[in-house]
Specification:
The chain has about 375 residues and is an alpha+beta fold. It folds into two domains: about 5-95, NE0471 N-terminal domain-like (2-Layer Sandwich), CATH 3.30.2020.30; about 110-365, Clavaminate synthase-like (Double-stranded beta-helix, 4-Layer Sandwich), CATH 3.60.130.10. The chain has helices spanning about 25-30, 90-95, 120-125, 125-140, 150-160, 230-240, 240-250, 295-310, 355-365; strands spanning about 5-10, 15-20, 20-25, 40, 45, 60-70, 70-75, 85-90, 120, 140-145, 165, 175, 195, 210-215, 225, 250-255, 260-265, 270, 275-280, 320, 325-330, 335-340, 345-355. Strands 9, 10, 11, 12, 14, 21 and 23 form a seven-stranded mixed sheet that branches. The chain has a four-stranded antiparallel sheet with strand order 13-22-15-20. It has a three-stranded antiparallel sheet with strand order 1-2-3. α4 crosses α9 (about 355-365) and α6 (about 230-240) crosses α7. The two termini are about 15 Å apart.
Length: about 375
Amino acid sequence: MSVIDAVSATAAGLVVAINGSETELSWRWVRDHGEDQESFDPTTKQRRVYAINPEPPQPAMRAELSVIDGTPIVCIIWPESPEKTWISQSTITDLLDPRPPSARASWHRPQETAVTKGNVSDVLTSDAALSAWVADIADFGFGVLGGFQGGHTEVTALARRIGYPQSTIFGTTWDLASDIDAHDDTAYTQTFLAPHTDGTYAHEAPGLQMFCCTERSGTGGESVIVDGFAIAETLRTEHAEDFEVLTSVSVPGHYIEPGVELRTSRPAIRLDDHGNIVQISMNNYDRSPMHLPSGDMDAFYRAYGQLHEFANDRSRWMSIRLEPGDVLINDNWRVLHGREAYTGGRRFVGCYLNHSDLESRMRTLGV
């Protein structure tokens, strides 16, 4: 972690020196980011002041490095008030000299994964087991458990170790089998399902999907998953123009059944402000009609087709035959999932979870 070398007060703002480089922070910014009790509630972690006023505050008299309750801080002394504003040094360094995001182990072949099969009862009772499970999801986009027993109540209990079940048109928790006719969806059949992500028709696309196997007979039906981040990075490297198309063109999706018509659109590859891939959104089954100028449409078809080709390259697939008691959880923003055709019975209970809750649990566990 970076360390602040020195601070000083000027008429314009607070000057912070880190690793030989100086940055000036306006006095309005300083007021807005105060962490002293006048500025910030330590219990609720919420601001107590509104500093975004038309007129900037008066310049501070001086600034100094100090320590309060063992926390290194920057202390600001104002001319008009005996109160001092302070900001933790870590807040400033994290903003001015941020650490790069933790490297995640993208995988192009199943043998490149190192996911360990955990146990449901351990995850329910042990934070160490929970951390290992969440670490697999964070690193590889999926996790596998054994020892599941029960139904919807038990699904909810397991989901609560990460966040809470996300309510959708399929319910808060759901059953999945070919003999269920509650929804008009290809998932409720025995046919082959090509790799895809769920919820391309929803603004709040599910972040995680959890499948708990309760019945299995017959042949086929292996679950298949592919690392969407890995194939998108391959596209960025080998087909830069296609990557640009899929990060800039919004692809519409829909889900329609009696009483339901869900629609939205987003790029197949969504980036953050720094160009990092944060979400893959690809489902040819639910893709809606769209139109672009002819040249742009051709470019889209070429780019989408290339991504589809990568996703359907079987050498990239992780194939998992889930038996009763097995649990598979996928990061639906990263991993594309599918299914081989099957005969006999194949039944699951499961649920979706929000991606925000996964990210929260990763932070609180230090994963």
